[in-house]
Amino acid sequence: MALTGIQIFKLLPKTNCKECGVPTCLAFAMNLASGKAELDSCPYVSDEAREQLAEASAPPIRPVPIGKGVRGFTVGGETVMYRHEKTFYNATAFAAVVASDISDADLEKKLKVWNAFQFERVGLNLRPQMAALKDVNGDAAAFAKAAKTIAETSEFNLVLMSDNADVMKAGVEACASKRPLIYAATDANADEYGAIAKDNELPLAVKADSIEGLVALTEKLTGMGLKDLVIDSGSREVKQALEDQVAIRRAALKNGNRSVGFPTIAFPCEMASNLDMETLIAGMFVAKYAGIVVLSDFTGESIFPLLLERLNIFTDPQRPMTVTEGIYEINNPDENSPVLVTTNFALTYFIVSGEIEGSRVPSWLLIKDSEGLSVMTAWAAGKFAGDDVGVFVKKCGVADKIKHQDIIIPGYAAAIAGDMEEELPGWKITVGPREAAHIPAFLKAL
Ligand code: SF4
């Protein structure tokens, strides 16, 4: 059971030396209790206290790193049931199944197609992370060969799926350096699969036929010294699988049940008979609460909406996504190019910059810090007021880059034009379109 801040405080040195980065041991204790600090930040905790605190201050759901490289990721580490309570931290990873009897040519083709599913949104590269290599015939050599090909010729990380220990060992040997997830330890093979995971220091999925079954298995495996576990309650019926996800999260967070304090893996690919239904079920598991979602394949019409949903669910609701205040050059502008100004809400920036780029009109885009608010909201909240924007235009240095004194403001902020003129004497303030979609035509008509 997790300790409270006061209980943790009693175990700290109480010297208030500030070396942990906060002014007092009490503040550090509170941060530790809420998962905002690491115990290692205090160099003066006694060994005895460290032992007690390490256990008590561990996150209720263990963060488990999986894979390597640009598609490596961490799952788990969540601290709340509902996103609006704080935030969700580690985004659900997407995997798609590859059968181990796939031909070399088909595997190469599949990986190439999958690799193309990368989407730029708000400055992020959205992409799936894993191939779930499934042993379909007990052929260890074929399994290992496919694992090696995926590990060495693609960015994708792996879930190795087999209930045959010899096949699993061959697969692990072929791609251990990529830190694959071993799927899965069960009642029947927990000792053997636990040993494979321990010997190779790899994360291990644990599958049972109920949550109760999981508890017994995770306790056995953690007793063997394994920590990086991913759990599967075994249900392939949608309602029960959802109930299991919620019950597992609740037991870990509300009841402090460490036996289920691990990220989960879900299999929509085994719950639906068509792509639409599979995608819907996968979407449900992104929201509640799968760490890894395994699909039957990656297709554009399925993975794109899932990636966008994931982006929304795992964005901190307390902090709008922003871009840095400054001058952005689009389409190689020169001293005669138009100047536009807008707010630093990431979505605003990416929509406006995208439209300007699409217009092919070389332009200067000024991004004014509005604390991440969109144009109308920022204007209403006084974060995009005419005098502030005027001061920003003067200070940002755009005047040194252009020969004219014309600036285009967003249509939704037309009311700031008067104050801007006062702050920028000699400048011509032009009210641009309200909708970003109209920017290309507006720029071309200048
Ligand atoms: Fe207290 Fe340790 Fe922080 Fe110093 S470093 S203030 S002893 S918690």
Automatic annotation (TrEMBL):
Q: Which GO molecular function annotations are given, in alphabetical order? A: 4 iron, 4 sulfur cluster binding; iron ion binding; methyltransferase activity
Pinpoint the 4Fe-4S domain residues: 1-59
Keyword hit for Metal-binding: yes
Any one GO biological process:
acetyl-CoA catabolic process
| Signal peptide (UniProt feature, chain positions) | none
Name the residues that bind [4Fe-4S] cluster.
17, 20, 25, 42
Which keywords, in A-to-Z order, does the entry hold? 4Fe-4S, Cobalt, Iron, Iron-sulfur, Metal-binding
Binding residues annotated for 5-methoxybenzimidazolylcob(I)amide, in chain numbering = 342, 348, 372-375, 436
InterPro entries recorded = 4Fe-4S_dom, Ac-CoA_synth_d_su_TIM-brl, ACDS_complex_subunit, AcylCoA_decarb/synth_gsu, Dihydropteroate_synth-like_sf
Q: Which domain of life is it from?
A: Bacteria
A Pfam match: FeS
Looking up NCBIfam families in the UniProt record yields: PRK04165.1
The protein, known as: Acetyl-CoA decarbonylase/synthase complex, subunit gamma
